[in-house]
């Protein structure tokens, strides 16, 4: 076989991407070699089981994916604003909207949030790491290699092109031959292992490793949202795993689960996909709710209003999220009775969501708000998300959905909830906890610029799309030169450019702050307004997190600790701390499974079998691994703490 | 030891299930029944041999009733929900618009007969 058989050829844009990827890769190799950083990379990062470092790697990958997905988005917007330019052909357009959707949900939103959870949740509950640190590293590398696989598809083998929903029969072997669709299946399958493992890992961490005295109803609200999210992950992801596996077997081994022939049930794919897919959208919004709650109560300088109600509404949302999936295919024709049942359950979800909105407003009511950058993102979230939620309820009316379905009205709806909800939360959370992660804050002025550009860009981009939808413009269409639609499409593209600019300023701010921001001296970075335990640690956080774990018996424990002058370093109580050792196994294990997946994608069975055997060997290796970690000595702890606290 | 036996048992049961589906000459109903039974046994092996549901030393404290209940509830939703969604409404029988279509079809065939 020749290399040109699997490389994608004939597209100038893709050649350009190949060249820039190759140059970028070479540049990284050069820098690492020139500054002799290979050992450092392996020892400090690739083999790390420290939840904070893994979290940082998650967030960096997510930002990279936000860039990749964003480039896809800009290309689509250019095509739609200038449909006569012939910028993209239909095949390329199909590939781009498919990778855009998949990347943004699976490889951007989830890892971003999981990254923040990684760093913050153990700190909020007074734990020293995850319950299973090895598994946590495994999760990250499974996500990483899944992401890498999915992303190389556009230069090797060709991208998937059947939408992020990958509906059968279109995505079956008969109508989508070739490796493209296999990239989707294996990329998601591989990274799904990690998501499921993280769900279990965080659940156990939160249930078993809280500070002494901390009851469930004392936990910070972000930790609560994480716990609820983990329940959804653990129950929803197996459905996706099974659906992906069945479709993989269909495509590679010729079974007939979702085919048109041989008594296959193509609609069963849609059914299974959305049984996972709807809970999935709540997986990415509940942690966002948690972040906003933390930010709002910190900068309103008040305890969160209606803490118990907030928790219960999340639990109710989680339960309901498993009972509404049919609203994604009302038009499949399941009949009036089925549609009515799911119409009602869908509209019910708006109730607990509304309750949460009122609680945030009540927290803000009569408070002295401090308009920091994370607070700006959070305040902007409230009205913007309401626009998304209200249109969601409109879509939830089955009869009306026959008009809205698969039009730009739907597109506008889910971008209003996903961007104003999840993406705003990612930015808010990152800026908010940035000093904890990197020891300095992000520059406020640049942060404001990024915020306003992104915020206005977002509304200019997506608000017109509601009207495009009402004017009948369908989604996933690449020639849209209908005179009626053109002006709104151009406006929308201008908005998208605004968002892109906002993102650029944000990334520049990372660099700028690294160079010029003042280094943090205390752990309580936001003018001493921190309320929960993560602010009680010093900055930078020592690798064992807490020298001594405080006793907690209330919500927002750090407020009282500060009043009473307590810290997480009580010198006479320091004991040796048990920590897990770093290991390269998770990296190697997942690299092997990545190789196996690559083999399956191209149906090179020898490679697949080789990779899978490698995986089994790594499991056996792990079973006979008796490394129990090590102890940090009392002297070392005392020395570290005294230095960090200037004692 | 328990783990090794459990591991081998679960492998064997998986292979038997695969054999039943791919290679055997059994009638389809029997294959389905057989696979279901194997699935139940498989779940049993997992619970008793790997997940310590009956470990006396911890006072049976390991039984995760809560999670198991939710697991069953979810399985119920997936199965019953899929049946509900996938089998309703596709044939409206003798009322609704499908009924009209059937009538049309009947007329159609009558026309044919007329020729
Ligand atoms: C008030 C709560 C919500 C309601 C009532 C609601 C309702 C709906 C309905 C009925 C649809 C299907 C419309 C159609 O296909 O014609 C839909 C699509 C969608 N919703 Fe929502 N939604 C809500 C909140 C959310 C949230 C919080 C998210 C994510 C953060 C979200 C993400 C999505 C996505 C991604 C789709 C489109 C999937 C696709 O077809 O590609 N929704 N929503
Ligand atoms: Cu939904």
UniProtKB/TrEMBL annotation, chain A:
Protein purpose: Catalyzes quinol oxidation with the concomitant reduction of oxygen to water.
Organism: Pontibacillus chungwhensis BH030062
Reaction(s) the record says it catalyses: 2 a quinol + O2 = 2 a quinone + 2 H2O; 4 Fe(II)-[cytochrome c] + O2 + 8 H(+)(in) = 4 Fe(III)-[cytochrome c] + 2 H2O + 4 H(+)(out)
GO annotation (BP), single: electron transport coupled proton transport
Matches recorded under SUPFAM superfamilies: Cytochrome c oxidase subunit I-like (SSF81442)
Protein name: Quinol oxidase subunit 1
Cofactor note: Heme A3.
EC number assigned by the record: 1.10.3.-
Membrane topology: Multi-pass membrane protein
Family: Belongs to the heme-copper respiratory oxidase family.
Cofactor(s) recorded in Swiss-Prot or TrEMBL: ferriheme a; Cu cation
């Amino acid at each position: 076989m020749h290399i040109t058989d699997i490389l994608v050829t004939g597209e100038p844009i893709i050649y350009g991407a190949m060249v820039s990827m190759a140059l970028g890769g070479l540049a990284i190799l050069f820098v690492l070699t020139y500054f002799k950083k290979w050992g450092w990379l392996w020892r400090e990062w690739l083999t790390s089981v420290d939840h904070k470092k893994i979290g940082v790697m998650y967030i960096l990958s997510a930002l990279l994916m936000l860039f990749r997905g964003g480039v896809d988005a800009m290309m689509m917007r250019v095509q739609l604003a200038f449909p006569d330019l012939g910028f993209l052909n239909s095949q390329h357009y199909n590939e781009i909207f498919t990778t855009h959707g998949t990347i943004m949900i699976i490889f951007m939103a989830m890892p971003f949030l999981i990254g923040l959870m990684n760093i913050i949740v153990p700190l909020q509950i007074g734990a020293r790491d995850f319950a299973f640190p090895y598994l946590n590293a495994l999760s990250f590398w499974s996500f990483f290699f899944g992401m890498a696989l999915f992303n190389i598809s556009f230069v090797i083998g060709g991208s998937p092109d059947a939408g992020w929903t990958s509906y059968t029969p279109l995505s079956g072997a008969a109508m989508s031959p070739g490796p493209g669709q296999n990239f989707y299946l294996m990329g998601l399958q591989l990274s799904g292992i990690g998501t499921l493992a993280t769900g279990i890992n965080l659940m156990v961490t939160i249930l078993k490793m809280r500070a002494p005295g901390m009851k469930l109803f004392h936990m910070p609200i972000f930790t609560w949202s994480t716990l609820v999210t983990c329940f959804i992950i653990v129950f929803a992801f197996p459905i996706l795993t099974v659906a992906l596996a069945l479709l993989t077997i269909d495509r590679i081994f010729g079974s007939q689960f979702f085919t048109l022939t041989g008594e296959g049930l193509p609609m069963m794919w849609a059914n299974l996909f959305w049984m996972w897919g709807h809970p999935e959208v709540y997986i990415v919004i509940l942690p966002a709710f948690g972040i906003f709650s933390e930010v709002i109560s910190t900068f309103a300088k008040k305890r969160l209003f209606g803490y118990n109600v907030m928790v219960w509404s999340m639990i109710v949302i989680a339960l309901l999220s498993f009972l509404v999936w049919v609203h994604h295919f009302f038009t499949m024709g399941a009949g009036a009775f089925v549609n009515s049942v799911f119409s009602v359950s869908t509209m019910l979800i708006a109730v607990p969501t509304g309750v949460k909105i009122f609680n945030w407003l009540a927290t803000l009511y009569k408070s002295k708000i401090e308009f920091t950058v994370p607070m700006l993102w959070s305040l902007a979230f409230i009205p913007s998300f309401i626009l998304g939620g209200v249109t969601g309820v409109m879509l939830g009316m089955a009869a009306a959905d026959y008009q809205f379905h698969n039009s730009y009205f739907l597109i506008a709806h889910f971008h209003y909830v996903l961007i104003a909800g999840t993406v705003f939360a990612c930015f808010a959370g990152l800026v908010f906890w940035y000093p904890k992660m990197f020891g300095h804050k992000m520059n406020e002025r640049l942060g404001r610029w990024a915020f306003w550009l992104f915020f206005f860009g977002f509304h200019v981009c997506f608000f017109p799309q509601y009207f495009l939808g009402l004017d009948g413009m369908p989604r996933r269409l690449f020639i849209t030169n209908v005179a009626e639609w053109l002006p709104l499409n151009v406006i929308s593209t201008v908005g998208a450019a605004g968002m892109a600019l906002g993102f650029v300023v944000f990334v520049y701010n990372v660099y700028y702050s690294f160079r010029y921001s003042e280094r943090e001296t205390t752990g309580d970075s936001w003018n001493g307004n921190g309320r929960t335990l993560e602010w009680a640690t010093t900055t930078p956080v020592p690798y064992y997190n807490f020298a001594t774990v405080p006793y907690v018996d209330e919500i927002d424990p750090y407020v009282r600790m500060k009043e009473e002058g307590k810290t997480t370093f009580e010198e006479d109580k320091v004991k040796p701390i048990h920590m897990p050792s770093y290991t390269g196994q998770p990296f190697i294990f997942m690299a092997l499974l990545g190789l196996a997946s690559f083999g399956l994608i191209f149906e090179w069975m020898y490679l697949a079998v080789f990779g899978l055997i490698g995986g089994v060997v790594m499991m056996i290796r792990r079973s006979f691994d008796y490394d129990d970690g090590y102890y940090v000595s009392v002297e070392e702890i005392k020395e570290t703490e005294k230095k960090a606290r200037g004692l | 030891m328990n783990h090794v036996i459990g591991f081998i048992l679960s492998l064997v049961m998986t292979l038997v299930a695969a054999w039943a589906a791919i290679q055997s000459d059994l009638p389809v109903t029997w294959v389905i029944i057989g696979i279901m039974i194997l699935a139940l046994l498989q779940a049993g092996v997992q619970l008793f041999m790997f997940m310590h549901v009956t470990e006396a030393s911890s006072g049976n404290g390991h039984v995760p009733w809560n999670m198991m209940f939710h697991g069953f509830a979810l399985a119920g939703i997936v199965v019953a929900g899929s049946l509900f969604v996938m089998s309703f409404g596709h044939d409206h029988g003798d009322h609704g618009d499908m009924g009209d279509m059937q009538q049309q079809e009947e007329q159609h065939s009558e026309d044919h007969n007329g020729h």
